[in-house]
């Protein structure tokens, strides 16, 4: 993926005009074409570098395959379940979203839904429009003293909880990631789900749609709830089993439901929508002027930052790539990729287990972005069309390459302050160790041999192993360079191991023929790092 080379962006849904204006001000060509059919999208996406969507556009594997130049899919909103993230990752396409853009709007709609359920406001308003005056029919309940269960305590869930606490509601909840200590700071008591069902008067869900959350509310869980429990889903269709919800409504086990989202949108089965105790909206969670402006502005700015090399935010996949923008981490990523390439070439294999060991406190958190960089280097000479920091880990797994990471706070001198990266091909003697000097990646060791002076790993390099007592290899190399009109830019040799030493030569350009050199060395290979 050629970062900083974005030229054309397609906006396939209606967004605030500020989105287009920000992109155009940065010099990007923008096409706004909302409401495209699948066939039209497949045609339009072919020559686009970026695609911006809301929730209606389905970015499938087929769409991604048709997008020959696509580098980034930007979701102006929170969830990305309309994007095939795995297919995007495999192709090296970055997926980003705006997780904070519509949080307040979605939270406010949820609070409004809870109020509507408690007082049957939509039903009463519809009755008035029919000319009726049914004061007794629409008897409601106070929220004060009632228990609200918030399932999912991220940005939206916690905003809902704090707002409903103002109505005197007791808030309990569940989240597999947020700790009970953290949720306690915003007034939510975390409990296991089995303890939540029988305690709550209202349930609101704020989780992503995952295999583990699909059908979170189902026949079994409804049976454990208090009779007449009220349910709100302004998150994703499918979290609440719609068939189970309808059965619970019909039996009275569920007293009412407020739905902004459905498994199929718009819903073809109208039984839920038409039930008298159901309040429904056509997926309006983010439909406020403020949220649309915020999401449009945020996704445009994120794509401009990516195009200009300023940085990456809101990344759903390829988190390692976001580190590639930071000046302090960029040379380490370059080093890890180079070490992967050297190891793969020296070891003459791509499959197997590779151990990446970071040494030194400065690299304590570096494994997350150095591991895909090593995988990228290992796969660089393979048959894959393009290996990037976005797809390297996935492609490595598919190629039979397992890359694992360990860390030690202690690094040997003279690299104790900067750190070292050591990459080993397990089950073989092949191991490479490098560091960064200034901003230059350098090689310190290869297969037990230490370089007297660290060898730069950049540009065209020629690496060979030969008898330490035979200096003819270097003379032959300089002769080949002279014939080819090239230059020897640098030369570094290692310590002697079993009578042999490694040499690394930095060249002005790769040599086309190594035939004269091969008889004088044990092994030799060229790389462009």
UniProtKB/TrEMBL annotation:
Residues 330-439 form the D-3-phosphoglycerate dehydrogenase ASB domain. GO terms for molecular function: NAD binding; phosphoglycerate dehydrogenase activity. InterPro entries: ASB_dom_sf, D-isomer_2_OHA_DH_cat_dom, D-isomer_DH_CS, D-isomer_DH_CS1, D-isomer_DH_NAD-bd, NAD(P)-bd_dom_sf, PGDH, PGDH_ASB_dom. Residues 9-317 form the D-isomer specific 2-hydroxyacid dehydrogenase catalytic domain. Pfam families: 2-Hacid_dh, 2-Hacid_dh_C, PGDH_inter. Its EC number is 1.1.1.95. It is an enzyme of class 1 (oxidoreductase). Residues 112-285 form the D-isomer specific 2-hydroxyacid dehydrogenase NAD-binding domain. It catalyses: (2R)-3-phosphoglycerate + NAD(+) = 3-phosphooxypyruvate + NADH + H(+). One of its GO terms (biological process) is L-serine biosynthetic process. Pathway: Amino-acid biosynthesis; L-serine biosynthesis; L-serine from 3-phospho-D-glycerate: step 1/3. Keywords: Acetylation, Amino-acid biosynthesis, NAD, Oxidoreductase, Phosphoprotein, Serine biosynthesis. CDD domains: PGDH_4 (cd12173). Belongs to the D-isomer specific 2-hydroxyacid dehydrogenase family. Homotetramer. This is D-3-phosphoglycerate dehydrogenase.
């Amino acid at each position: 993926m050629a970062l900083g080379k974005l030229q054309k962006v397609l906006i396939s849904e209606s967004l605030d005009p500020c989105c287009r204006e920000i992109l155009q001000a940065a010099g990007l060509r923008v096409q706004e074409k909302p409401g495209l059919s699948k066939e039209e999208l497949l045609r339009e996406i072919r020559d686009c570098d970026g695609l911006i969507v809301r929730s209606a556009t389905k970015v499938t594997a087929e769409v991604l395959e048709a997008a020959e130049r696509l580098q980034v899919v930007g979701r102006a909103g929170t969830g990305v379940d309309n994007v095939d993230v795995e297919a995007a990752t495999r192709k090296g396409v970055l997926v980003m979203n705006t997780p904070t853009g519509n949080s307040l709007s979605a939270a406010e709609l949820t609070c409004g839904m809870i109020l509507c359920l408690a007082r049957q406001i939509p039903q009463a308003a519809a009755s008035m429009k029919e000319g009726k005056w049914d004061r007794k029919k629409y008897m409601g309940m106070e929220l004060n003293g009632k228990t609200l269960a918030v399932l999912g305590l991220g940005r939206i869930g916690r905003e809902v909880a704090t707002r409903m606490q103002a109505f005197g509601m007791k808030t309990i909840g569940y989240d597999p990631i947020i700790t009970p200590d953290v949720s306690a700071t915003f007034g939510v008591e975390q409990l296991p789900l089995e303890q939540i069902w029988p305690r709550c008067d209202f349930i609101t869900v704020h989780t992503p749609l995952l295999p583990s959350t699909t059908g979170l509310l189902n026949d079994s869980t409804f049976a454990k709830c208090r009779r007449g429990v009220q349910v709100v889903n302004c998150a994703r269709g499918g979290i609440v089993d719609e068939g189970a919800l309808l059965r619970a409504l019909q039996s009275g086990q569920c007293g009412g439901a407020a739905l902004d989202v459905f498994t199929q949108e718009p819903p073809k089965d109208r039984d839920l929508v038409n039930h008298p105790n159901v309040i429904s909206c056509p997926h309006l969670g983010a439909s406020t002027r403020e949220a649309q402006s915020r999401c449009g502005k945020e996704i445009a700015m994120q794509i401009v930052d990516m195009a200009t090399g300023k940085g990456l935010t809101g990344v759903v996949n390829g988190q390692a790539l976001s580190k590639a923008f930071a000046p302090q981490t960029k040379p380490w990523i370059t080093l890890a990729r180079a070490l992967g390439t050297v190891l793969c070439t020296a070891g003459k294999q791509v499959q197997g287990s590779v151990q990446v060991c970071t040494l030194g406190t400065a690299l304590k958190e570096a494994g997350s972005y150095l591991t895909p960089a090593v995988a990228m280097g290992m796969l660089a000479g393979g048959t894959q069309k393009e290996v990037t920091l976005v797809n390297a880990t996935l492609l490595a797994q598919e190629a039979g390459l397992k890359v694992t990471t360990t860390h030690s706070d202690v690094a040997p001198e003279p690299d104790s302050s900067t750190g070292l990266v050591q990459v080993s091909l397990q089950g073989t003697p092949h191991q490479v160790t490098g560091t960064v000097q200034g901003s230059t990646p350098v090689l310190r060791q290869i297969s037990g041999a230490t370089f007297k002076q660290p060898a730069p790993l950049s540009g065209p390099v020629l690496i060979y192993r030969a008898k330490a007592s035979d200096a003819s290899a270097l003379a032959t190399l300089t002769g080949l360079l002279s014939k080819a009109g090239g230059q020897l830019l640098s030369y570094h040799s290692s310590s002697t191991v079993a009578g042999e030493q490694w040499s690394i030569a930095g060249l002005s350009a790769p040599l086309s023929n190594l035939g004269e050199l091969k008889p004088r060395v044990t092994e030799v290979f060229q790389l462009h790092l």
